[in-house]
Amino acid sequence: MNVIRLIISSRLIFLITLFCLISNGFVWAESRQSGNQFLTSELLNLSKDSSINPITLWIDQGAQIWQKDCQGCHQDLNSIRQSVVDFPRWKKNQLVNLEDQIVQCFAKKQITGLSLESADVLAVSTFLSDSAKGLKVQVQSPIDPAEKTAWQEALNHGAHIYTQRQGRVNLSCTQCHDLNIGKNLRSDVISPGYITGFPIYRQSWQAMGSMDRRLRACYSGVQAAIPPSGHRDLRSLELFLKNRSEGMIWEGPSIRR
Ligand code: HEC
Ligand code: HEC
Q1: By Cβ atoms counted within 10 A, which residue in 60, 162, 212, 221 is the most buried?
Q2: Which atom of ligand 1 is found nearest the CA of 185?
Q3: Is any atom of ligand 1 closer than 6 Å to the C-beta of 241?
Q4: Mean pLDDT across the stretch 153-170?
Q5: Which residue range(s) make up the domain with 219?
Q6: What digits encode the pLDDT tens for the residues 107-127?
Q7: Cα dihedral angle (154, 245, 219, 141), rounded to 10 degrees?
Q8: Cβ(188) to ligand 1 under 6 A?
Q9: Which residues have CB under 8 Å from 250's CB, separation 6+?
């Protein structure tokens, strides 16, 4: 009797172990966690309730601008949606991100003097980002061989900055975003810094802000010289981070503390 029990229980243990291994395997298949997975429950609730989420207003504002200033040339929102997940792109020998493209497109309508953080630029960016929800992040390398080489160099440059210590605090991006994930820093919880949901509405900014602004805030956090808005270092970092986020689901504009 005891022997039978023993056989049954060891089989059970074997089965449980097998189940754990398999289910672990499934979790492992997408173990990358987006910034949204590090939100407090309060912020998470805010982000899920469109009646109180401040981002809703930005999306509505962006939709109006889209109709007024963009739709004339871009009837097909579908092709534009796809572009949200593949920026930054290689264009005329440099990387261009979504907000850069929007500023350039406003200029086609003689609307000039806008910056990456102008409310109208961020509103349309928020609207487009929202329309791309559910797509997979997928940066595109150029087809032309010379351009492809230059693009690869930009990607390497981004990887280099990511691992280089800097600032008075003498920390690299990787020390926070790879080695201290989940730890508290002031009132923030450090995420792996994947790019799956920009622009962001940061409560401390009381406004939407671009990827560019978020990255500059991290430079400021380590008391390093902050690259000016649009600097190639910021675009290279964005390419590196988005490349690293490849295949993750785009979550649209996001709330942050
Ligand atoms: C001292 C730690 C620290 C360093 C060094 C640091 N960051 Fe951050 N970073 C943070 C914190 C804290 C946040 C806000 C919480 C979060 O999302 O991780 C953040 C947010 C981010 C985000 C936004 C993630 C999201 O989903 O909202 C990105 C992207 C990012 N950092 C990239 C970088 C890059 C690139 C560097 C290097 C130039 C860098 N960080 C250096 C602490 C750091
Ligand atoms: C006068 C025509 C015109 C207007 C108006 C215009 N665009 Fe564009 N847009 C273009 C062209 C042409 C391209 C192809 C790339 C280029 O030449 O910059 C483009 C490319 C884009 C792209 C990249 C998508 C892709 O598949 O290449 C985005 C995103 C975009 N525009 C957004 C906007 C937004 C947002 C507005 C309104 C603020 C706008 N555009 C207004 C002509 C226009």
Answers
A1: 212
A2: 12
A3: yes
A4: 97
A5: 35-256
A6: 999 999 999 999 999 999 999
A7: 20
A8: yes
A9: 84, 85, 129, 132, 133, 134, 135, 136, 137, 196, 197
Residue 63 host element (H or E) = helix 55-65
What total number of domains does the chain contain?
A: 1
Residue 2 lies in a domain: no
> Is position 20 within any domain?
no
Say if 126 falls within a structural domain.
Answer: yes
Does the pLDDT of residue 199 top 80, yes or no?
yes
Please work out whether the CB of residue 200 comes within 6 Å of at least one atom of ligand 1.
yes
Does the CB atom of residue 256 touch ligand 1 within 6 A?
Answer: yes
pLDDT at 166 over 80: yes
Let me know if residue 150 belongs to a domain.
yes
Cα separation, 67 vs 127, in Å, equals: 11
Residues recorded for the chain: 257
pLDDT (average), residues 120-145: 97
**CA 157 to ligand 1 centroid distance, Å:** 18
> In the beta sheet, which residues pair with residue 188?
185
Query: Which ligand has its closest atom nearest to the C-alpha of 120?
Result: 2
Query: How far from 218 is each of 94, 108, 127, 174, CA to CA, in Å?
Result: 23, 33, 25, 12
Could you tell me the CATH number of the domain that includes residue 194?
1.10.760.10
